[in-house]
Design goal:
By secondary structure, the protein is an all-alpha fold. 47% of the residues lie in helices and 0% in strands. The protein has a domain of 52 residues. Helix 2 packs across helix 3.
Length: 81
């Protein structure tokens, strides 16, 4: 996967984020490639959506969170969002 190396936590940003981040998610690299292909498939949308390795994880996280009732409740995701 190009653009990101997520094998371990980067300590510099972690010092900034650790006191303000409430939730995080971990994604397998395989899901990122699959999502990039899905978004680029014209059967998914009228237009091709070109997503790279750095944008696909956000889409995966949103889809996964919306499909899991426990996560939806924990993150307060509802129809208003």
């Amino acid at each position: 996967m190009g653009g990101m190396s997520c094998g371990e936590v980067s300590l510099v940003p972690w010092e900034i984020l650790k006191n303000s981040v409430k939730h995080c998610i971990s994604l397998p690299d395989d899901d990122i490639a699959k999502t990039m292909k899905l978004l680029g498939n014209s059967s998914f949308s009228d237009d091709k959506i070109i997503a790279g390795e750095n944008s696909a994880p956000g889409v995966i996280s949103l889809i996964t969170s919306c499909e899991d009732q426990a996560i939806k409740e924990k993150l307060d995701l509802n129809e208003k969002i």
